[in-house]
Amino acid sequence: MTLPDVSADLEATAKRVQELADQVAAKAKENGLSWLEGYEKVLKNLLDLEEKPRRNPGLIGRPRWRPRMRISSGKPLRCSSRA
Question: Residue 35 sits in which domain range?
């Protein structure tokens, strides 16, 4: 089975995201330094979120609230109580 070529879609979407980011930055600049610094913080947090799976591949697909717990047999622990 061959996968469809999504490079054109990827480039078009990346262009739209860039244009939107430029618009947000321009508006934040108009609104003053605190707005622009806030936007910078949002972008840094977003970048951190994007890079986190690369730093720790074990986090992919595992919700943050569900810690990785193992017993000596290597099987995951399961909660047996019912709410």
Answer: 11-83
Report the C-alpha gap between 56 and 64 in whole angstroms.
12
- What is the per-residue pLDDT across 6-57, written as a single tens digit (0 to 9) for each? 888 999 999 999 999 999 999 999 999 999 999 999 999 999 988 887 777 6
Q: Residue holding tokens 């990785």?
A: 68
Angle at the Cα of 24 (from 21 to 25), degrees rounded to 5? 85
Type of residue numbered 36 = L
* pTM score, whole prediction: 0.53
Cβ partners under 8 Å of residue 76, min gap 6: 69, 70
For residues 36 and 25, the answer to whether their CB atoms sit within 8 Å is yes
Q: In this structure, is residue 77 part of a structural domain?
A: yes
Number of structural domains (the chain) is: 1
